[in-house]
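Box 3.1 A note on notation
Throughout this textbook, protein chains are presented in two layers. The first layer is the amino acid sequence; the second is a token string describing backbone geometry. Keep the layers aligned when reading.
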Amino acid sequence: MRELPSPYNVYGFLFLNTAIEKVAEVLRSRLGLTEAQVYIYKSQFDGSEILHINTEAFEFEARKATQGDSWLFNGSVAGDRDEVLSVLQTVSNPLRWSGTK
């Protein structure tokens, strides 16, 4: 098993046309991940939500951006550039196929 890099090596945006809960459901069902691996933390302070995706090979989080339907998406993937791109495709394809953007 490779160690996840620190600091993060993935930065980007998710542009969603649905609730973040739907994203979590799609990732769990299509990638075979558990509720412990894909979950949403909701702040008791301000109600903000953070999507967490954690496996041995990668971990990501998504936080709502200040404007629009975009979410800041960042995290770490173990491996070289090709492995990072492969993981990103693996995570993004189910969202695209489900109509969740």
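The CA atoms of residues 12 and 73 lie 5 Å apart. The mean pLDDT is 92.
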